[in-house]
Amino acid sequence: MSILDTAHKSALRLSREVVAFAGFPKSKTTLLDTPCTILEAHVEDQAKTELDLKCSDGKYLVIDKLLPENSRPMDAKSFLNGHKK
Fold first, then answer.
1. Cα-Cα-Cα-Cα dihedral of 12, 46, 30, 5, to 10°?
2. Is the pLDDT of residue 85 over 70?
């Protein structure tokens, strides 16, 4: 398992790890108190949603598609819609 280390890695490196680790060992993190596997992500200069992770280089890893624990793959918008309070 690969944990996304935003404190020590750049957004570009993490976006590449998401692609490289897609089969194994997977890129995992916790979003909104939910353990998730990141399936697709890209780099942006500014955050777009509350899921976006600020990295060591000041850029953001924008989560496009994820797999919440005990659920099915979904895009970030669907995940956020399911977690609105």
1. 30
2. no
